[in-house]
Amino acid sequence: MAFGIKRKDVVEWKKRIDQGEIAFLTHYWLDDRFPGCKTVTKVGSKDLGRLSEWGKEYGLKKEWIHHRKDGYSHYDLLGDKQREILKAEGIIEVLLEN
Description:
Blueprint lengths: L1 E2 L3 H12 L4 E7 L9 E6 L3 H10 L16 E4 L1 H10 L4 H5 L1
Antiparallel strand pairs: 1-2, 2-3, 3-4
């Protein structure tokens, strides 16, 4: 279940994806399948090749991309991997805010 996210943040994330960027969106999220995880970061791009190459740098498999028909395909980052990647990308503060 997603919560604690503003519509303007989703709109901005989609806009950045539409512009061909690698875009990050972190929000609160609870799912019994992932105990201890309270947030998820969606990392998306319209360019799936670019997204796949980006993910490869962090040990993510292209098969893990959540393919969406609406053009907003993305990786879901959780837990330690989420923290590791956000720190490497210089945007760890989104976890500190949450």
